[in-house]
């Protein structure tokens, strides 16, 4: 990035000598002895300057494969086969050998940034550490460079962020810190595990440009794990499709997207939500109960109080303002999409709506009950009717509880189900979110990112709430699973008539799910209105930028010249 | 399958944990069955066999009153295990809920509980013990109570620290958002994640309690002579170490083994309860 | 922060009041009349009554307490009923001994315990772990009086390398001071180190399994850095709790060690004074140690928020 | 056998070793407890007397044969014919207190008055018989008594006979203990509670040129084994109380010298006669319990044979210790069982025995327990901390109680307060007007033969009552390093350091 003198080499050359080549790669987690391994006989190669997209079903072994290569798997995991990086065999190399490679020659952006950043050190400290350890920079130089890196990934107020701790950042901000950390030493190979799931489309576009630029200008080889076919189409050169631990298809992006050979790839592509498509199909919003139809006029209409009514809500963290003067209503049976810039206060708003965050001012009413001043005890009866899917599923699941226990807990608390009936209900919930009911005995760390996310969704749905706050509920899901989950949500909503605040960066998904959309930026609500109107005819310039930046599979795959 | 095995089965599958369990069961069992297992009456003095070194008749030698040491160790295990374990368990029963609550409700509960805890900590153990003996009257049960009270602050502070640390975690928020009542949050979500620290504190507390029992017995608050306890045997062997080292060595070994058993068992439980540890 | 500290100091004052009242009541509930002890082997009732009146023991306990509080408020600690020496002098001469012993053994406990705990966690299930655990086991189950006595026999009586007892103020001779404190600090410290080691190990095992440790490894950091910087800092809440507890325990709990090495510290003072029913001494000493506990715990609480930014000292739930 | 010929060690009495001494140096003495206030008026502990022995001389002193000799007095007291006036002649040959104040009769009067009158004085009882004290010129004090009182001279050989500097009393009043000043070879320099008491050589002492040491440091170390370890390691030069299990070893050990004296310190089992439900209520049970005990074996088991069995209040070293007084009912388990049967009590007869909570006494208690079991008693031991046990004993809240008495040189001091109705130490509740009268007569008898007769009558009666079952009499074992000599141990148990010093040989090595 900062070595412009190094001209990009020619592509043909690169393809001939991949910098990273995995062949017959197998990853078997402890406890999988009897079952199939998480990754089975995967072949993979990526050349300098090439962007390889790794796509596939959630839980198909994408993370396992890439982390296995670098030995970043839990102790006791068996990694077999071969993975050669720059002429060096990595499998069986041992911690000492791998240490020289990690961070410097091969860097990683982890899928779940919250748990992957060290909670007790400042962002600046964690960034500087890489620079000082690998590049021997002095404190001041490292600081300046860290700042530069943050600006590169589009974080504003870099100076303040450097002093902050991970828990003070929004999901997208953390993700960008992870990216900055991985880029710090100009690695030869960059493994980015769903690096843009928490980013709004404009920021995402910037990051993707940045990655593409790295590949082109510095010859960095990039393995990009993603679910977003638009992203694949936009930046990747080649793509490998994984299914159940094996690669089912690979090839040039244009070819795979244009003429998929494998069944699974075809299904995958068919499930990709397309912006503008759902309004044409028109299904969910039109089918939604009457309240949804009244759109912006909904608040107060009908006899039932709205599921959520937020008035003039502001939240301050010390001197920083996360949310300022936001008013928003979600009627029963309605889904309101909340989109906006990363760090604009969406999650904060969501947390206020479920009573986890005390607003600095303003009011929040759920189903007609004012909750902003309620004590925890008074709040508890309301909990059943308000549920949240957290943006960061990994940290929202209790590491010491099996997911079965976690799902059964609220059911037992609020529901009459006991014993076998309870077990059946838990199994049904898991099946609803397309998880194997046998997985209920597993602990959170034994799941893939997308699987965890589905557990979190199942937990929120267990109690059939009146208001569901879903904070990026499908960001870690591949499009086929996402499709099914979205279908599930719509069907449930039709049946139970709950109100839903749906926070997402994926405009196509928002379009599909919501009758109305609210757009946030810098803590303020800049635009709100019926989905069709906002997405087709945005009033605010920021909304316009968002729409323009939205990636699309249908966009011409990246020119290969 | 490890993924599906219950903690109990995982404990048994872990060699160190299983050994710890076996050792604990063996020693505790030997203590409880002392009346059956002991070759002699532990109180039977023999003025003609004072300080006899180990022999066939008395495999571990005899003590300053010619009593059979093997029998005394078996009975001593019984007293020490009952008092030590009971004390620590009582302490944990009190300290765990209070400590968790203090770490979780930081505005109201913490100042009250923590300051009371400071006060109990500052109370010298001896004043406490002598005072309790005076008020309750001497008995092994009251000894266990006194030791238990003195162990409360330790467990309480550890649990409070853990609750403090864990209440910042998002899964606690998630549980609250899921409608978990405070008790559920504390005991189903925070406590299991604090189990490591608790297990360690309990397993290190037991030998400390056994040694403290010796001091209380000395004050007349614990076991009544000639009833033996490991702590009493150890401390009374002090002055005759040069003449009769076996009087110190064997009870010492018994205490070490008991501590070993509890600690291995604790480690085993730790690993069995830790879903990540279980995989190693 | 300042407000928090002020609040805590106010709480501390209340705690001390509580402790003093409890100790006052507790001591008076104990059987054994100080006046009888003072009257000697052959006491006559008149003398006993005189002594009781001298000591104010004939007044109702609440009145005695208020009188005592009034004196304390004027920093008048009174006199030992047994030796007739001013209590404040006694406490002042003991404070340095107690503090030095506490700090040195805490140092031993922290260094040995934390390092061994970390090493054991990193090498879980391997020989290092076994060795560290075996050491801890001995530390836990070998009573201090044994360790101390054996130390004295070996190093002072047989080898003659270290003095068996005696406190030399550091101002007089630093080497003499250290020679005298070495064994006590080691004996006391190793016992505590066992507890520190066990907790550190347990906490580190958990931390080492977390995602941010994976990140640190992915950064290509040396194992030492991963463990000692990224891992240890996250275990600090647990480790600090334990160290705080130990320091607290050391202030008044070093009785046995003080006896073996004949050190004039607080632990011994309190025990002896309880036995001789030297009430003014016990009351004052308990108050001073209670103040020590309160300060240590306050320091630990402040440290919590320093090592883990998610724990804010004012904040939290209500 | 692990314990080698302890009895031989015990029999060989030795009160001091002599060797050429060098001047200078310091002597560190390990005491077995913390002394109480260093104020002769208030002091109650034996260990406190150890320190006084270095710095406070008395009107009379005890010599190596337990005889009374003048110290600050110029000669024996002169008692008037009716026994009511006692004149004590005083030394005037340039005796000065350690602060330089001259020693005279006024000073003696002032001290005696303080002993008698200061509130809380523990001397007041001892001087109960003294009605008035006055100076007669510079060199005589006259004590007027309310009744003839034979033990007076021996009382003046203890703390009641210590004379305090009037200047110091002026300066400190009741707080004399903070900076005590007497006549003595050493003067008080410093005291750090429970750590050390430091005395330094007094230039004012009348025999200063016979004092070798510059300093004497007393350090309380309650644990026997730790005290001994410190002696062995060289941290201490002299220790009080070698534990009975260590005596044999120390007597043979190179580099250590064992001093050994008989004592009047005894342990006895007091039985509560007022307890209607206990064995105290039935003389047969009391006798049975006494007969069940084999004192030789007790001595053997609990003390490795280094102490002495005791059967009565008057120690063998007393001038009144004749055969009758020393006679022992002995050990007769058969008779004991018969008595239990006769009493009609259901065997085993439960007995709650309160014992001091130190290891030696707990061992003693268990030995008693085992022996009593053979006679049909089920003894339950209750180790009790000292202060609590005194409280229980005074309240009569016990069945049997093992406790000690440090012993007085005069027999009366070992008898009166234990057996007189209402006596301060009469925990058993023994009350017999005839015995009361005998005790009073014996104390008043100034003629030794008459006293002897009275005690010969009294002691057997006491033994019959079995209110106190005497168990054993301690011996004093003091050890010092062989680089030290001139330390003297008398039967009063006090370690006299006035003439002690570093041996010239040791000093030569050091130099
Ligand atoms: N605990 C905190 N302390 C200080 N600032 C915080 C804290 N939590 C969040 N913030 C800040 O508040 C702002 C809003 O955060 P929020 O998480 O609501 O954003 P978001 O809209 O959900 O972003 P994203 O899409 O990236 O998840 C951000 O700038 C963030 O840095
Ligand atoms: N520690 C573990 N123990 C056992 N099974 C595991 C463990 N980690 C992951 N798995 C399983 O291995 C499979 C592959 O997981 P992986 O994380 O590679 O999926 P992924 O392709 O990255 O999915 P996603 O897109 O949802 O992140 C999943 O089925 C998951 O349940
Ligand atoms: Mg993944
Ligand atoms: Mg967010």
TrEMBL record, chain A:
It is a peripheral membrane protein. CDD domains: ABC_NikE_OppD_transporters. The keyword Cell membrane applies. Keywords: ATP-binding, Cell membrane, Membrane, Nucleotide-binding, Transport. It comes from the Bacteria. Residues 20-269, 308-547 form the ABC transporter domain. GO terms for molecular function: ATP binding. Residues 279-303 are annotated as: Disordered. The keyword Transmembrane helix does not apply. It is found in: Cell membrane. Pfam families: ABC_tran, oligo_HPY. Its main location: membrane. PANTHER family: DIPEPTIDE TRANSPORT ATP-BINDING PROTEIN DPPD, OLIGOPEPTIDE TRANSPORT ATP-BINDING PROTEIN APPD. Belongs to the ABC transporter superfamily. This is ABC transporter ATP-binding protein. It comes from Nocardiopsis endophytica.
From TrEMBL, chain B:
The keyword Transmembrane applies. Keywords: Cell membrane, Membrane, Transmembrane, Transmembrane helix, Transport. InterPro entries: BP-dependent_transpt_permease, MetI-like, MetI-like_sf, OppC_N. It is found in: Cell membrane. The chain crosses the membrane at residues 81-104, 116-135, 197-223, 244-265. It is a multi-pass membrane protein. Residues 77-266 form the ABC transmembrane type-1 domain. Its main location: membrane. The keyword Hydrolase does not apply. PROSITE patterns: ABC_TM1. Belongs to the binding-protein-dependent transport system permease family. This is ABC transporter permease.
From TrEMBL, chain C:
It is a multi-pass membrane protein. The chain crosses the membrane at residues 101-122, 134-162, 174-196, 239-264, 284-307. Residues 1-25 form the signal peptide. Keywords: Cell membrane, Membrane, Signal, Transmembrane, Transmembrane helix, Transport. Its main location: membrane. Residues 95-300 form the ABC transmembrane type-1 domain. It is found in: Cell membrane. It holds the Pfam family BPD_transp_1. InterPro entries: BPD_transp_1_N (IPR045621), MetI-like (IPR000515), MetI-like_sf (IPR035906). Belongs to the binding-protein-dependent transport system permease family. This is ABC transporter permease. It comes from Nocardiopsis endophytica.
